[in-house]
Amino acid sequence: MERFQNWWKQEKRYLTMVKAVLLALLPVVCCMVYCAMQGKSIGDVYLPCSEWNDELFYFKQVEGIVNYGYPQGYFGFNESHALKLSFAAWSPVLVFPWIFWGVLFGWNMMSPVICNIFLMTLACFLFVWLVKPGWKQLGITSLLFCLYTPFVRYMLSAMPEVICFSLLIIFYSLAINYLNRERTVKLVILFVLSGLFTLMRPYALLFMLLPAYLWWKKSGWKGLAGSGAVFAVVLAVYAAIKHYLGAEYFAPLFFTDWVEAFFEQGLWGGIRFTASKLYYMATAFNSHVVQGFRTGLASGAFFAGYLIMLVVFLGQCVKDRISLGRLRRQVESGGESGRERSGALKKQMTIEIHFAFSLVAMLFALLLMYKLTEGSKHLLTFLAAGIFIVSTLETKFYKKAMVIGAAFAYFYSYMAIDPYDYQVPFAREERVAQVESWRETLTDTLTLNMAETPSFENSVIWLFRDQSAGEDLENVSKEYKNVKWQLLYALPEGFGINCCEKEYILEHFGELQSRYIAVLAGGEVDVKCREAGYTEWNRDEDMVLYQIN
Predict the structure, then answer these.
(1) How far is CA 345 from CA 135, 282, 320, 339, 352, in A?
(2) Which residues of 321-343 are buried (b: 16+ CB within 10 A; e: fewer)?
(3) DSSP string computed for 479-493
(4) What is the helix (H) or strand (E) element at residue 516, kind and residue range?
(5) CA–CA separation, 157 vs 473, rounded Å?
(6) What are 286-309's pLDDT values in tens digits?
(7) Backbone φ, ψ for residue 416 (5° rounding)
(8) What is the rounded average pLDDT of the residues 224-245?
(9) Which residues contact 279 (CB under 8 A, 6 or more apart)?
(10) What is the band of 2 on the pLDDT scale with cuts at 50, 70, 90?
(11) What pLDDT digit, counting tens, does each position of 475-509 carry?
(12) 281, 354 in Cβ contact below 8 A?
C-alpha cells in the first residue's frame, strides 16, 4: 500500500487523473450544450429523422449480428451479397465496438449514439493519461475540440466515424507515450491498433508505418522483417474479409485506373495518365475548396480544414528540422542542455513527420482513388487526430492552434448551414408516429424464415428512388423521388436490406430473388407490383411494402 501511495504521489498521478476526467467530460458536455441550444436533449436524437442513409445499413446490420450472430437476410446492392454470411460492402470490423456494446447492453435506436459518446470519452481520458499534457496544452485541446463541430455531429449519429476518430487518437497517444518510455508491449499494441484500423479502412495502412519504423529503430533489420510480416498478414486478412464478407457495391469503392494504366500503357504512359488525373482531380478539389469558403459546401469545408492542418504540420516539420540542426551544433560544442532538448525534439519530430506524411499521402489517395464528395468524410479522422497532436508540440504552438481554431470556427460553425451535413436528427412527432405504425404492422406480418440462413427469403428490396405514375403508367413523371427509406428502421430484427436501383428492378422484374420489396407509393414500380398481383402488406402516402409472390 505504501509503495502504491509513493508511486501515486511521485508521478503526480492524482493530477493526471483530474486532467483526464476533465477532458473525458468534454464530449458529453459538448453534446449536451449543442442539444440544449436546439431546445433538445441527447435523448431526443432519433435516427429515422436523419437524411444519412448509410446509418440504416450500419444500424440494421449490427442489430442482426447482436440478435442472431449475423443478419438472416442479405444486405447488398442490386441484390448482390457476400460470398459468406450477409454483410454489405463495408467490413463488419468497422463497427465491432458497436457489436460489443450491443451484446453487453442491448441494441436500440440510442445505442450507437451512447456508444459513440463513450468511445470519445475513453479516447480523451487515455490521451491525457498517456501523454500527460500541461494545463495550457489541455486548454488548447479543449478549445479545438469544441470548435470542431463534426465531433458532436458524428457522436450523435449511427455513423462509424467516431470509432475511427477515437481509435486514431488513442493510437497517437500511445505512440507519444512509447517514445517517452519504450516498452515492447506498447509497440505490440500499436501494431494491433493500426492493423485493426487497416481492416476497417484500408488507408489506415499509413499508420502501420509508425510502429514499423519504431521497431526498425529498436531492432534493426529484424524489426524491419517483422514489420513486413505483420503487413503481409494484415493485408491478407483484409483481402479475405473483402472477398468473402463484402457485397458488391453499385460502383467500385476505389478507383485503380491509374495503376492499370502502367500495365496497359507502359511506364511513361502510366506516368502521363496519373499526372493528368492528378491535375484534373486537383482542379475539382480546388473548386470544392472555393465553394467551401463561399457557400459552406461541406466537402469543400472539409478539404479546406485539411489543407490548413497539412500546412501547419509541414511548416512545423521544417521549423523543427532547422532547430534540430542548431541543437546538434550546440551538442558538438559541449552543451549538455542542447543534448536533452535535442532528444525531446527528435521524439516530437517522429510523430509530426509521420502525421504530416500521412496527411500528404492521404491527399494523393483521395485525388487518385476516391470520389471527392464521398471521400471527403474520410479526412475528418485526420483532422480529429490533428487536434490532439498539435496540442502536444513542445513549441510556441498558440499561433498554430489559433489558425486551426479560426478555420474550424469559420467552416464548421459560421458556414455550417446545410442541414443535411450538420443538423443533428432530433425526433419529430409525425416521423416517430409513422415509423412506429410501420413497426407494429410489420412485426405482426413479417416473420423470419429460419430454415436456411442467410437467404433472400429474409431480404427486403429497398427501391432507392422512382418516378410518380399515379394509377397507371401513361403519365410517368420525369422527376425522381427518393423512397422514404427511414421507414425501414421498422423492419423486424434480422431482416436484410438490399438497396436496388430502379433500372435493375425493371430489367429483372418477375425474376427478383428477394421475398419483399419496398417501393415509392404511387411510383412506376408500385403500379407494376400491383398489376403483377404482389401481396401488399402495408401502404401509406410515402412507401408500400409488397411480398413478391
Answers:
(1) 20, 34, 7, 10, 10
(2) eebbeebeeebeeeeeebeebbe
(3) SEEE--GGGGGGSPT
(4) strand 516-520
(5) 39
(6) 999 999 999 999 999 999 999 999
(7) -85, 75
(8) 94
(9) none
(10) low
(11) 777 788 899 999 999 999 999 999 999 999 999 99
(12) no
Torsion of CA 128, 132, 136, 141, to 10 degrees: -30
- CB within 8 Å of 510: residues ≥ 6 apart: 532
CA dist., res. 325 & res. 332, Å (int)? 11
Q: Are 23 and 16 in contact (CB under 8 A)?
A: no
pLDDT (average), residues 56-74: 95
Burial of 191 (0-12, 13-18, 19+ CB in 10 A): buried
**Rounded distance, CA 269 to CA 247, Å?**
33
Compute the mean pLDDT over every residue in the chain, rounded to the nearest whole number: 90
**% of the chain beyond a pLDDT of 70:** 95
Three cell numbers, residue 251:
460502383
Name the grid cell of 113.
449514439
- What length is written for the chain? 549
**In this structure, what are the phi and psi dihedrals at residue 543, rounded to the nearest 5 degrees?**
-145, 150
SS3 category, 201: coil
Burial of 401 (0-12, 13-18, 19+ CB in 10 A): buried
Q: Three-class SS of residue 425?
A: coil
DSSP 61: H
Global model pTM greater than 0.85: yes
Would you call 49 helix, strand, or coil by DSSP?
helix
Here the cell at position 489 is 428502421
Grid cell digits, residue 69: 450472430
Pairing of strands 76-77, 480-482: unpaired
Q: Which residue has the cell 450538420?
A: 422
pLDDT > 80? residue 429: yes
